[in-house]
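Suppose a colleague, Dr. K., hands you the sequence of a protein chain of 94 amino acids and asks what its three-dimensional shape might be. Before reaching for any lab equipment, you can write down a predicted structure in token form. Begin with the sequence itself:
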Amino acid sequence: MENLFAFAENQGFKVSILPLKANDGLLYGNHIGLREGIDDMEYMKYLLAHELAHAYLHEGDTIHSPFHAEYERQADKGAALILDLLNFMEGEER
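The predicted structure, expressed as tokens, is then:
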């Protein structure tokens, strides 16, 4: 988990744990917010990877876009790629 946080910060993102209500993760500019109270570290890692994927793939407000469902699908696939690569580099299998 620390490697992914370090990568995000190295890429210029500020990652914060926040009292989010409507979402478990949120990207706003170069800020990534993750909902406080999530105890599952694998899920937290997925959320961070998902928001990073949005940052690399999409611009602007994706939540209110008519393509929101497609953007979410793309971010899910991007998150899977990021996590697979991270696990490979750390010598873990998924």
